[in-house]
Design brief:
It is built from 5 helices and no strands. By secondary structure, the protein is an all-alpha fold.
């Protein structure tokens, strides 16, 4: 999977959006205009979520470390974040994380020999 065709851009958009939401109180005295992201301005929720989403975006941006198993773990992680954000922040803020999980699963289900080196070896040998 090439990083710009997969979930990396979605993860970067989520990380940037979460960073803007969590930084909003430092830039403005007014409330965040997007109601679905207002709970992210709480530092004990927003900063950890922003950091984790940024780490996920960095991970998805390096295709050399991606394998099918690692992508499926990342999809599960993104789905867990989706559930946590849905209940603790808002469903609107969680949409991007749900899209990332679904996109990773969709890409991982497709047969792609570049993600699974064992499948590529077995085709060459057989």
């Amino acid at each position: 999977m090439r990083p710009l065709n997969g979930s990396a851009p979605l993860a970067w958009i989520a990380a940037i959006g979460f960073f803007v939401a969590v930084s909003w109180p430092h830039f403005s005295v007014s409330e965040l205009p997007l109601m679905g992201l207002r709970n992210l301005t709480a530092p004990y929720v927003g900063w950890p979520l922003t950091a984790v989403t940024l780490i996920m975006a960095l991970f998805l941006s390096f295709p050399s470390i991606l394998s099918r198993d690692r992508l499926l773990i990342c999809a599960g992680f993104s789905f867990c974040l989706f559930l946590v954000v849905t209940f603790y922040v808002s469903p609107v803020a969680a949409l991007m994380l749900g899209f990332i999980a679904m996109n990773i699963i969709r890409e991982a289900v497709k047969p792609n020999p570049t993600l699974n080196t064992d499948a590529a070896r077995s085709r060459r040998a057989g």
